[in-house]
Amino acid sequence: MIEAVDVFNAFQDHRGDAIVTTTGRAGRHWKNISTNPNRDVALGGAMGHTASATFGLAVGLPDEKVVLFDAEGSLLMNLGVLATISGKKPKNFYHILLDNESYATTGGQPVPNAEEINYAGMAREAGYASTHEFNDLEDFVTNIGSILDETGPVFVSVKIFAEVENAPIALRVREPARSRDETIRDLRAELGISE
Amino acid sequence: MTQEQAQILRPETLIEEFKKNGVTHIITIPDSETNYLYELMVNEPSLDIIPVSREGESMSTALGLNIAGKVPVCLIQNTGMLESGDSIRGMALNAGFPLVMVVGYRGWTRHGVTPDTAATYTEPFLHAFGINYYLVEQDEDGDRISAAFAEARETRRPVVVLVGDEYHGFNR
């Protein structure tokens, strides 16, 4: 198991100009680590669909590297997206799954078959160009740079520690963050895309 | 043109409307009634076809494409639209971008009586979500498709084109 914040710090060293999206509890670390927020875009808003929206972005911007930090609970809600992505084969799409084996935002209940399921195996058999699995930080740090140079679609499954949030939603303290609309506006401005 | 021909909605009409409105991507799950339309789209160089695994993916994929400056259309069946409620809510309505969804109206009949509950719930579903729609049955309705695009652009909301032409034309 790896701390999610360490995964993001290791990725940051190799990010370059990649466009980055995140979902799930662990994804909240990224905004405190990213040094290029204009290329960070929030694409949540419907259960399991951040992956589909990020895939659409990658197809629409074939000259940009697009990296998604997904969560296994989210992926399970939209598992067919593995076939969709594999079918279209976006060469610029990097799908990094942070697998904490649980629904961390709802109290840490396990996802179905949490300990035995093999997401990288699913992605491999669906047809991703390459897949990788990590359960050790040093191994991840050593390899993430070269993985980001591979031709997509690439799938990377990383086992992380769960950071369980168990307070009622109304009592949770939220750090200030840009809205989805604001991140979209900023990304378009960064890329020179008019509405 | 014979009376029979005039009543057919030709798939070429949809392609022409897509081109007229600058459509770049068709996000779709092919269904048994639209084989010929699918073949036409695949062979149309101005369109990039994105097959998805479940209809709910189509709205979120469309959002990503819209952010990239593209003009996507979702082409699905009404059964798939019913499945897509949370995606329509969170990725289309809440996102506030122009999106035309072309929806095959399975079970539709002109006389209004159908044993198919897919048709029974189609228009009440759209009413519940506050989504406007245009019914297209034959070629002379083609301008309604451009009206849907214009409304989507003006309101920055999803607008549906219901294709009530299930059993001829697209699958000739």
Largest interface: chains, residues each: A-B, 32 and 31 residues
- Low-pLDDT runs of chain B: none
CATH architecture of chain A: 3-Layer(aba) Sandwich
| CATH architecture level-2 label of chain B | 3-Layer(aba) Sandwich
- CATH homology superfamily name of chain B: Thiamin diphosphate (ThDP)-binding fold, Pyr/PP domains
- Total strands of chain B: the figure is 6
Q: Could you spell the SSE succession of chain A in H and E letters? A: HEHEHHEEEHEHEH
Main sheet makeup of chain A: 5 strands, parallel
Beta-sheet strand percentage of chain A?
A: 15-25%
Record the strand order, biggest sheet of chain A.
1-2-3-7-6
Number of domains of chain A: 1
What is the structure about, briefly put?
The complex is a heterodimer of chains A (195) and B (172). With 195 residues, chain A is α/β, with parallel strands linked by helices. Chain A has helices spanning 4-12, 50-60, 72-76, 81-88, 119-126, 137-147, 180-191, and strands at 19-22, 66-71, 93-99, 102-103, 109-110, 130-134, 154-159.
